Amino acid sequence: MVTGQGVVTPLGTGVDKFWAGMKRSACGIREVQSFDTNDLYITIAGEVPDFNPRERLQSKQLLLADKYSQYAGCAAQEAVAQSKLELPLEGDEGYRAACIIGSGVGGLTTLEFSYKMLFKENKRATHPLTLLKSIGSSASAHVSIEYGIKGPTFGVVSACSTATHSIGLVYRMIREGLIDMGIGGAAEASLNWGATRAWQAMRVLSPDGLWPFSKNRNGTVLAEGAGILVLEEYERAKARGAPILAELRGYGMTADAADMVNPSIDGASTAMQQALDDAELAPSDIDYVNAHGTATAVNDVNETRAIKHVFGSAANKLSISSTKSMHGHCLGAGGGIEAVAAIKAIEENYVPPTVGLDEPDPECDLDYTPNVGKERKINYAMSNSFAFGGLNAVLVFGPPPA
Amino acid sequence: MDEVATKIIEILRKNMKDPSKTVTLETPLSDLEIESLDLAVIVFDIEDTFGIEIPYNANEEVEAFATVGSVVDRVKGIISESKASGAAA
To answer: How many contacts, defined by CB atoms under 8 Å, are there between A and B?
Structure first.
């Protein structure tokens, strides 16, 4: 059961701001503010506009951490507050909880800064916290320390599927009886000059905007943030009178084992099918799909074909959207933020839109909820994450048990 | 074949599965089994070799990358443009 959720996004910090932004079709992509875009031809990104660590975080350790850990700490704080858990966990309870918070690249901005100091400024030493700030497990460690979580605690790495894999893993651990509850998700804060240069060199970024499924799409737009859920075993959640937001019903994961950048229909559709089977649902039970929808030429056509392959004639009755059109491609954190979008969609019976979709690609011919969201009864929602390397992860959420 | 063309074919060969294949100016890039990611690497290598910048987005069809000869022409065009702007500055 999902008993808490928290986000940090380019549409704002906190689920309320995030959801309100999507309901008014807002877009968090703008000219980069946080670093100098000199010599770059990509000058836009989805930066978090309203994050003040001193306002958001109480722990001194987190205040000294990399921004990616701070985003994780902030989203986790929102999620646990909503769950009404009594924290920190005491005694053996701590060992029955997990904290799996991944990141695509961890504290990359800390590393970039330290290399700049060493190689360019010829400093003789790096800041003593450089290592702890940059490691990809620091977000999970910080959050475990905050809440007394002493069970399985580590980061997961699978590029743009990271958060989805992390959440799925916590879910499976609960189902297997290893733990009673856990915090799962991911955080990313890799927007900096060097990383933008590296992405720019791959030639997959759009200099203009992220327009999924559109005929005019010309690439994705980098973004940052965090998306974190609190998952809990049903009886435990019920016994303590926890607010149950949704049920995580199914999880599927596959690898294409084919190509680093060109996705396969087979890998994506098998992951979706596995998630449906795991949830014991038929394709026609799904009302809403939060698509991976990166607005690259290859992803959107491949994803459309994979959805058709899995859903058959039910594909035409689906409401689909890529909320990346509003919050950008939050990389490792994307699946966590998008899981929250799927849960809110169920909670409010509202499909968030795909903005910037005036003229669909003829090869993308499903209902992507263009430009404005719409009310629709949503029982079950699917959230897709398909990462570089062909790493696929899919979650299926449903309403809280009656 | 001039120096620019020779260097470009050398760069292409490095990224071909079978570098022993015959490559002429008329050869379409699709015949060289070059995919989108290879093309990004090739463009990087060309930029580095000639000290130029080539606008290229993997999400768009680029006519200038149809054949080996069209790549050579495009690179020559950019080299002479950058020389001209350098002279003006």
So the answer is: 37
Our CA dihedral for A342, A346, A348, A350, rounded to 10 degrees, sits at 70
* Beta strands at A181-188 and A225-232: parallel, antiparallel or unpaired: antiparallel
pTM of the complete model: 0.95
DSSP assignments along A254-274, one per residue? EE--S-SSS--HHHHHHHHHH
Q: Which segments of chain A belong to CATH 3.40.47.10?
A: 2-239, 248-398
The residues with which A225 forms a beta bridge, in sequence order, are A188
Tell me the residues of chain B between 45 and 84 that have a Cβ less than 8 Å away from chain A. Answer: 55-60
The residues spanned by each domain of chain B are 3-16+25-88
Predicted confidence (pLDDT) per residue in B42-57, tens digit: 999 999 999 999 989 9
Strand ranges in A64-202 using DSSP code E only, listed in sequence order = 97-102, 153-154, 181-188
CB contact set of B47 (below 8 Å; sequence gap of 6+) = B53, B54
Q: Which CATH number does B3-16+25-88 carry? A: 1.10.1200
Among 3.40.47.10, 3.40.605.10, 3.40.30.10, 3.10.20.30, name the CATH number for the domain at A248-398: 3.40.47.10
Beta strands in A123-180 (DSSP E): 153-154
- ipTM, two decimals: 0.84
Q: How many CA atoms lie within 13 A of A55 on its CB side?
A: 4
Residue type at position A310: V
Q: Is B35 on the interface with A (CB under 8 A)?
A: yes
C-alpha to C-alpha distance for A173 and A178, rounded to whole angstroms: 5
- Tell me if chain A has a CB within 8 Å of the CB of B39: yes
What's the pLDDT tens digit per position in A233-289? 999 999 999 999 999 999 999 999 999 999 999 999 999 999 999 999 999 999 999
Which superfamily does A2-239 belong to?
Thiolase/Chalcone synthase (3.40.47.10)
Packing angle between helix B36-50 and helix B68-88, nearest 10 degrees? 40
Residues 6+ apart with CB under 8 A from A232: A1, A3, A83, A174, A180, A181, A182, A242
β-strand partners of A396: A250, A382
Split at pLDDT 50, 70, 90, the class of A323 is very high
Q: Does A395 touch chain B (CB under 8 A)?
A: no
